């Protein structure tokens, strides 16, 4: 009798273990899809817009999260409610890793279907999927996991199919310094970028075209980020004089140093798509060894959501304010004076930034709006003080820099854009404010435990 009782107990334990195993994940396999996204964007480019890596990261991490969450239903969903999943998909029996693999694979193959230069990308997707699924024992759990992952991914893509992506663009009008073509449209009466032959502006505001993931529109961010400083603002001259020193043709007044130049070039070379490969590296560090399951995929989604919506809304703000770039301002003060003698004295027709300037509006800083929410969310989730290495993946030799906290990286990244000649300090400060605001509201209001 006792032997039967022991056998029954063993069988119950085995069944319990099997059921519990459904929501277990191979952490390396989950994070490998972040690296896969980085490789994909590097090889296939940015279909639709420069913003596409951030949007792709949210769609992929959102599909992964909703698929895993559907098995136990412990947190608020991203888009797909567990109760909406068809009954023929037995989600409570699904293998979580199979669901993750299929969800990520489905998203990436739909976003980057493998045509032209991206043929090799599709091969990478297929190979990674086959390798990961081969590690899972055949059976009902694996089959249900694959079906669950595919269903959730397709449902998310369908949900976002009418979100206005990709945005349409039109050529920027040909404005000249002191001209009237852009009067009333751009800050200070003429183009934000001069000449504007390569500039592109959306036909309408970004909020009218592309819907953010966590906001009805970006309009609300206008109350977070006010218009650029007025010429007579108390700190305006200090910001202008500081940046002028980094690019002035006056050797006696130029404040650029080799160390500053190196730092600016490093952060310029830390790519958008590289952020998601770096995220996989960060979360593989020993201090995160216990981060697993739903907590792992939830953390990744919170980070990508914060980054994507802050980036999208900073673009909307750029097109709202259309502030001129420093290279426009300093070179054209003679033709378009501010009326403030100390500022007009900074006129320098040969003012040259250390790095090429993106032909778009200046305010607020995009680097700050992308980098700050990414690292601010990491800080909120795991604390600030973590030692890590960042790599400039697109620069020859791929140089590295060491950091002891997430905040220190974000601060240096913002500083680098001032030194590079891209932004004034007030623009970096407002991009930082936007990024922190976005990360805080998403952390406090989304993907909460039920």
Task: Provide a concise account of the structure shown.
By secondary structure, this protein is mainly α.
* Topology pattern, helix = H, strand = E: HHHHHHEEHHHHHHHHEEHH
Give the integer mean of the pLDDT values.
83
| Count of beta strands | 4
Q: Using the coordinates above, name the CATH class of the largest domain.
A: Mainly Alpha
- What is the terminal separation in angstroms? 43 Å
Folded structure, characterized:
The longest helix is centred in the C-terminal third of the chain and has 29 residues, at 293-321. The chain starts with a helix and ends in a 5-residue tail after the last helix. A two-stranded antiparallel ribbon has the order 1-2. A two-stranded antiparallel sheet has the order 3-4. It has two domains: 19-159, Vanadium-containing Chloroperoxidase, domain 1; 212-445, Orthogonal Bundle (Vanadium-containing Chloroperoxidase, domain 2), CATH 1.10.606. The chain is mostly helical and 450 residues long. Helix 3 packs across helix 6, helix 4 runs antiparallel to helix 5 and helix 14 runs parallel beside helix 16 (425-445). Strand 3 and strand 4 form a beta hairpin. The chain is built from 16 helices and four strands.
